[in-house]
Amino acid sequence: MSRDPAGAEPEQSAPSPSAGLLAAVAAFLAWMFGGAVISLFVLVSRPATLDMLGDRTAPADLERTAAQWFAWYQCAFLLGAAAGGWLFGVLGDRYGRTRAMGWSILCYALVTGGSYFAPDPRTLWWLRFAACLGVGGVWPNAVALAVEALPRVPRPLLAGLMGTASNVGFVLLGALCLAVPATPEHWRWVLLACAPPALLGWFALYRVPESPQWLARRAADAAGPRRDQPLREIFRPPLRRRTLIGILLGGIPVIGTAANAHWLVPWSDQVHSAQAAATAAASPEAAAPRPPRGDPRQKARTQIQRSAGAVVGSLLGGWLATLAGRRTTYFLISLATLLTSTCLYGVLDPAHPWFGALAFVLGLTGVMYFGWLPLYLPELFPTRVRATGAGVTFNSGRLLAAASVLGAGVLAGWFDGDYARVGLATGLIYAFGMAVICFAPDTQAERLDDC
């Protein structure tokens, strides 16, 4: 890791325990509510498509259309989060972690709430893209703020907690939709439920203390020679190789989540709806004009099962990286997730009694990455470009993931909406992760405050 030309560390003011804890709690909540926004369209995409297009689409084509719109909404999230990670990551290094985090929260909360009024899928797509600018911006600033505000707390613990935060949001939104199902007749309320975190955004702007490391770095830069822009610096030697490796390592689990694991929820909805339709067809009573849609709570149960595993897995990711090493842990996570995904999509289906247990395991193994990433990605970069570097590496992978999700949508069309075949194909991304990690630098012995 490179240092200042003079070789000196900027003097850092020691944060008070209460200020550091407040900043870390705000960062956790920011990413937790961001997780709820991420999971939002996993739950409402299919009901929204059935509501908006059901009267204009032939019943035989409705499942294919719903699967393709699910892919498009996933793509909106990935593209928006990628752009937001770049934008707000730079703002976080230039204007402060708390300011950029507060702006990011306001973006995802207010735009998601405003999506309630979307009249059609295309408008909803653009609003989803805009909201996810904020989702992408929260991650680098929240992670940088947490690790810099609590320098004495073990990094694996902080990494695990930050990785867990978004999955807690997944579980909370899933529980809410379990209590009040999101159906084709009533799904817009879920959008409004994601708007109140705007209050946290305001609190972050005006009440959360700034990172002492960032303040010290700003003071040192003001007294010394002017530096390059953060984006230019991370794409120039000696950081360029680390940036490119980080993009690949951050992109693999994002692709796996968006193009593989998230498909469990609409697949579960599809299979249980088909079972309800088959039951209705066998009934001697008069058929309804549209097949029954099954238990709308089933998709919420699937999300809770997978996300509960993800909460455990994200806590374990950073801890295992400390025990087994950064690179070995990533390789083992990739192998375990590949095996689980292949078994889940290739052997089982959502009606199988073991489906919930395997969904839990896929959440556990596949989201260990997100306990590993908050530990590893900040270690790649010095303080002055940490938010930019973490934002670019984590969120640029979303551009690769967006292309993969569109490819999954094409596969869904080819496979006539067969989510199992899509899952089998997209699960191969984890094998690629086993290869990429072999070329990554080992940062375990490096100091986080190197600059």
Q: Globular, elongated, flat, extended or rod-shaped: what is the shape?
A: globular
How far apart the termini lie comes to: 7 Å
CATH class: Mainly Alpha
Number of beta-strand segments: 0
Strand content: under 5%
What can you tell me about this protein's structure?
By secondary structure, the chain is mainly α. The chain has one domain: Growth Hormone, Chain: A, CATH 1.20.1250.20. 74% of the residues lie in helices and 0% in strands. It contains 18 helices and no strands. The chain is globular, with a radius of gyration of 22 Å. Residues 1-12 have low confidence and may be disordered.
Short summary:
By secondary structure, the protein is mainly α. The protein contains 18 helices and no strands.
Please give the structural blueprint:
Layout: H1 17-53, H2 59-95, H3 97-114, H4 121-149, H5 155-179, H6 189-193, H7 198-206, H8 212-223, H9 230-234, H10 240-259, H11 264-282, H12 297-324, H13 326-346, H14 355-367, H15 369-379, H16 386-414, H17 419-426, H18 429-436
